[in-house]
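Encode chain A's predicted structure.
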Amino acid sequence: MKNICFYFQIHQPYRLKRYRFFNIGGDHYYYDDFANEDFIQHVSEISFVPANRLILDMIKEYNGKFKAAFSISGVALEQMEIYAPEVIEGFKELADTGCIEFLSETQGHSLSSLIDPEGFKKQVKDHDDKIEILFGLRPKVFRNTELIYSDDIASLVYEMGFTGILTPGSKRTLGWKSPNYVYKSAVEPRLKLLIRNPRFSDDIATRFSNYNWNEYPLTADKFINWIAATPKEEQVINLFMNYETLGNFQKKSSGIFDFMRALPRFAAEKNIGFATPSEILSIQKPVDSISSMHPISWVGEEKDISAWLGNTLQQEAFNKLYEVAERVSMSQSRRLLQDWIYLQSSDHFYYMGTKNELPFSPYASPYEAFNTYMNVLSDFKERVDAEFPSSIENEELNALLTTIHNQADEIDRLTEKIKKLESKTPASAPEITGKSIEKPALKAETEAHSKTVSKPKAEAKVKKKEKGAEKKPVSAVKAKTKASKK
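Encoded structure for chain A:
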């Protein structure tokens, strides 16, 4: 039986305000709150909220036979919590159906997997903790930023305990092979790969409302017939796309919501089901291994990472940012760590691209995007240097901080030990109650104590007198000496 695996990406960065050179050192807040609020509320209204409602209705209408997966970046979740909490509530309802899977990714939708392995692992853990707190589900399958994948990334992901990862359908890695199978990593054979079907995914995501497309209009029955016509051995059709396809990239007037609503009915007629990534990986065995020595993604014709690191502007900003990665990881400043996550979002580097037009960029040109980002980064680095002076090498700084932390732990341990000792009552001490000590005994003890205290005082008086007596002969000698001189 063939299964369609729907996966939707959701991400929105914290857009930067117009941060000028003269702001450096004086203004440590970098974000355009008005633009961020306006955009997230707008896209929630026309896309996220109605799409959540649509998928919930489909799950109920078809008795749980429709299933899908979501990957929501940590920065997108934060903004939805602040500006569009109704979207979060919608996802909670979907999670309660048991037909939705949440995938793992980086907290900041970052490119850290390319340069900062430890930071990458921390972001993934922070993201998964957030998903579990909000929706009660722990992600089991990994999906990297923009589906970026390589052999090195596969090793990192496997080390973190994941057994599956989503990857793009690149001709460089697949060659003649079909994306409609489960594969495994060439470097980590236990890590299974789900590969995006670029043709069927883009039919919905980019060509659906294109009047010049020779297959326009795309209807649900036509689309399901195409899937049914694939070879019988090809059991998995992975449709990976941005969630904004529903309502934003493809407007409601295009009929995209009606198209989605009709898919399960026509799929059932052709004995085609729907499954989440975890379900696919549990029932399908890998047919072959895939190797990718260089990073690939789902963006652009080449399916490489040139959309973010293809020119000198992007590379300069990227390298300058991660120069301070080790020092930032030592910081305990909540504000600094928060800015660090926000500044890593891949969108900031995408806006500096000169390869293609950037329809979603808030800047007039890539050079304006670069100048704004570098001004912000200069201020951020000044804050890092203020906490960890650049004159101290990273290794020396790390050793000093380790020593300080160890001393702090030792102080806490000794303080706790003192508290425990103070809380204990000595076994030889009598209990002081109204009846346990008789009044005469108490009086005798008091008198003895008084004598003990007065004895040192008496001795001190005697010594004082003796000292005074010793001084008299000295004065007499002085008087005699004066008389003899006269």
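Confidence is low (pLDDT under 50) at residues 428-446, 448-486.
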